[in-house]
Amino acid sequence: MKTNFKNLAIVAFLGLGLYSCSNDDDNGPVTHAPVISNFEYGEGSEHSEDQFAYKGSDIHMEADIYAENVISSITVEIHAHDLTPGEDEVDWDFEQTFTEANYQVINATFHEHIDVPSNIPAGEYHIVLTVVDELGNSTEVEGHIDILDLISLDEISIDETVQRGSDIHTEFMINAVNGIQNITVDIHAHGLTPEAGEVEWDFEQVYTGSYQGLTEAEFHEHIDVPATAPVGEYHVMITVEDESGNTLDYETHIDITE
Question: What global pTM score does this model have?
Answer without folding.
Answer: 0.74
